[in-house]
Inverse folding.
C-alpha cells in the first residue's frame, strides 16, 4: 500500500516533469539559447540547441513520457483503490487521479513553464537529454508512424519556413521590444531590416547638389576651391559635370601640395586621384553596405540604367538610415545649404529636389516617402498633375504651397506643419 502510493507520487512527478519540459522547450527562445551558447559557452544552452535540431523527436519524447507516467500512475492508483473499496475504487480513482493529473501534472507545471520558459528549459536540459536517448528506440518507431500517416493523408511534413517568414519573426520580436528607454534601439533594429527594401537612389546625394570640380582646372584653383570644403572626397569631371573621371581625396591633395612645397605645377591630379566606382541606382542599401565593406570603400557614384549620373552615396548615408543624423566638425548644419530656408518654427521654404527622407529625418516629420524621393516628386504623385505657382495642397498633416515652378519642374515649395491633420484638399 505504502510502496504503491509512493510509486504513484513518483509517476505523477515524472509526468509533471515531462509536461513542464515540453512547454518550456517549445516556448524557449532559440535566439536566447544561441546567445547563451556562443557568448557565455553555457553547456545547458548547448544541449538545448542540439535538441532544437530534432524538435519532432523532442516533442515525441516529452509527450511519450507525460502520457506513459500518467497512465502508470492512474493504473496503479486504480488497482490500490479497488483493493481498498472494491469496484467503487474505480470511481474514486477516476475522481482523484483526474484532479491530480489536471492540476499537478498539467496546469501547474505548464503555467509555471510558460512564464519562465528559458529558465525552466535550462534547468531541465540535461534530464531531457537523458530521456531523449532512453526513449530513442520507441521515438524512432513513433516517428516512422507519424511520417507514414502524413504520407497517407498527403499532408506537408517538411519545414516550410523561408527567409521572408524568418524576417517577419525578427520584426515581430522587435515590435515586442518595449520600454521608453529602448525606443531608439527599437527604431535602429527596425531600420536595419528596412535596408533590404531601400535602394541607394532613395538616400543618395542628388547630382544637383553634388560638389565636383573640373579636372582641367589649374591645381592652384582646385586647392583654393577645396580648402574650405567640408567633404573629404570630391568627384572630378572632364568636359561636363556628368562625366565623372576620378575621385580626389582632399587629404592626398594637401599632402602633395606640402611635399611639393607650393610648386603646384608639379602636381599631377591624375596621379593622385582614384578611379571612380559606379553603382546602379537600384542597389539595395543592405547590398551596398556589404559592397562597401568588401571593397573597403565608403564612396560610390550612382548611375541609372543608361549610365547617366544620378548622384553619390557614402557609407555615412547608409549608417544614417540606421542611427539617424551623424554630424561631425566638418558637416554642414546650415539649412540653406540643404535647400531649406526657415520662415517660422513650423514653416519652411524647401527646394523641390530636397529628398523626403532627409527632411523627415531632419525635423522628425512623417511625410509619406513610399512613392517618391523628393518633395517635387511627392507633390506630383499626390496631385497627379503639375501644380501651378500659388496652388496649395494639404497632405499628411502638412500644407504645401507652390512658390516657384520652372517650366514643368517644381523648384520651390513652402511647407507648413499643421497643428491638426486636415483631409487632403487643394486650395487656390
Amino acid at each position: 500500500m505504502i510502496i504503491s502510493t509512493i510509486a504513484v507520487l513518483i509517476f505523477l512527478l515524472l509526468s509533471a516533469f515531462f509536461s513542464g519540459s515540453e512547454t518550456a522547450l517549445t516556448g524557449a527562445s532559440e535566439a536566447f539559447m544561441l546567445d547563451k551558447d556562443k557568448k557565455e559557452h553555457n553547456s545547458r544552452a548547448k544541449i538545448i540547441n542540439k535538441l532544437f535540431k530534432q524538435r519532432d523527436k523532442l516533442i515525441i519524447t516529452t509527450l511519450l513520457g507525460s502520457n506513459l507516467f500518467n497512465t502508470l500512475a492512474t493504473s496503479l492508483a486504480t488497482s490500490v483503490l479497488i483493493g481498498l473499496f472494491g469496484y467503487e475504487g474505480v470511481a474514486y480513482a477516476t475522481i482523484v487521479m483526474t484532479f491530480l493529473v489536471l492540476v499537478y501534472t498539467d496546469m501547474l507545471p505548464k503555467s509555471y513553464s510558460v512564464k519562465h520558459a528559458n529558465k525552466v528549459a535550462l534547468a531541465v536540459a540535461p534530464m531531457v537529454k537523458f530521456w531523449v536517448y532512453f526513449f530513442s528506440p520507441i521515438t524512432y518507431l513513433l516517428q516512422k508512424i507519424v511520417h507514414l500517416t502524413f504520407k497517407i493523408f498527403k499532408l506537408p511534413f517538411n519545414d516550410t519556413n523561408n527567409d521572408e517568414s524568418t524576417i517577419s519573426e525578427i520584426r515581430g520580436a522587435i515590435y515586442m521590444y518595449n520600454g521608453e528607454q529602448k525606443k531608439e534601439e527599437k527604431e535602429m533594429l527596425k531600420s536595419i531590416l528596412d535596408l533590404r527594401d531601400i535602394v541607394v537612389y532613395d538616400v543618395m546625394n542628388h547630382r544637383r547638389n553634388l560638389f565636383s570640380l573640373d579636372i582641367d582646372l589649374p591645381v592652384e584653383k582646385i586647392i583654393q576651391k577645396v580648402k574650405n570644403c567640408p567633404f573629404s572626397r570630391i568627384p572630378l569631371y572632364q568636359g561636363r559635370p556628368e562625366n565623372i573621371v576620378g575621385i580626389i581625396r582632399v587629404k592626398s591633395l594637401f599632402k602633395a601640395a606640402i611635399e611639393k612645397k607650393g610648386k603646384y605645377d608639379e602636381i599631377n591630379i591624375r596621379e593622385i586621384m582614384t578611379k571612380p566606382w559606379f553603382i546602379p541606382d537600384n542597389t539595395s542599401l543592405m547590398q551596398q553596405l556589404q559592397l562597401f565593406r568588401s571593397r573597403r570603400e565608403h564612396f560610390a557614384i550612382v548611375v541609372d540604367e543608361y549610365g547617366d549620373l544620378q548622384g553619390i552615396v557614402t557609407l555615412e548615408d547608409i549608417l544614417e538610415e540606421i542611427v539617424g543624423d551623424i554630424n561631425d566638425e566638418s558637416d554642414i548644419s546650415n539649412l540653406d545649404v540643404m535647400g531649406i530656408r526657415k520662415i517660422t518654427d513650423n514653416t519652411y521654404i524647401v527646394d523641390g529636389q530636397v529628398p523626403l527622407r532627409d527632411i523627415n529625418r531632419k525635423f522628425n516629420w512623417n511625410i509619406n516617402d513610399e512613392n517618391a524621393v523628393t518633395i517635387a516628386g511627392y507633390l506630383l504623385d499626390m496631385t497627379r498633375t503639375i501644380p501651378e505657382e500659388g496652388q496649395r495642397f494639404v497632405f499628411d498633416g502638412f500644407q504645401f504651397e507652390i512658390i516657384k515652378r520652372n517650366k514643368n519642374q517644381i523648384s520651390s515649395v513652402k511647407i507648413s506643419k499643421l497643428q491638426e491633420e486636415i483631409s487632403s484638399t487643394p486650395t487656390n
In short: Residues 2-152 form one domain.
